[in-house]
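Hey,

Quick one before I head out. I ran the complex with iron/sulfur cluster overnight. Inputs first:
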Amino acid sequence: MPATKERKPRRPTSPKKRAAEVLELLQQQQGVPVWYQRYDPTTELVFTILSQHTSDVNSERAGHKLKATFSSWDAVADADPALVAEAVKSAGLSKQKVPRIQETLKRVREFTGDYDLTFLREMPLADAKAWLRALPGVGPKTTAIVLSFALGLPAMAVDVHIHRVTGRLGIIGPKVNADKAHDILEAMLPEDDIYGFHVALIAHGREVCKALRPLCGDCVLRDACPGRRE
Ligand code: SF4
């Protein structure tokens, strides 16, 4: 029988402490990201609806085609849905996404008089989340992306990579689904660390802690990871 490699016993760590430790190790490796506004909030909202159940490449292509095809958000909101569907076809699922986008734009227009969502910055975070969540097809991930990436607010967006990596690391429990993980992770971190945690974990999930074959031997988190594979 070949000798089995002994693992050092791991000291028990609370999920909150493990999250802090993980962030520190990943930022030592990756650096600390500087927040920047990727798109204005309405564009981010529409692009994120387009990104549901498709790749970033396809949804970005669809979003840019939509903006190039129509002269304004008014024009998108009031257009023949078939024309909008044609513009965003690379994102797929246009039967669901087009009505969501048009209805969302109409509700934003009705509420704001234009398409300026920066008023969300002035609201308590929970109220800003609730306002976005009331829009059609807008769940916790889309909400957190708009608040975090477009408005710089401390909302934790959890995608498939972050859900997988935090599960393997024991930061969230095995029964916590991605929707529930948003609030759980957000509550574990200081507000100033939420954006950095999101960025660090996505990069780690894409490059190291991959879905099928995590590269545990090359992982800076291996000593802190209960899910590591030898
Ligand atoms: S040790 Fe393995 S499972 Fe744990 S975070 Fe690193 S790559 Fe993922």
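Residues 165, 168-169, 208-209, 214-216, 219, 221-222, 225, 227-228 surround iron/sulfur cluster (CB under 6 Å).

Talk tomorrow,
K.
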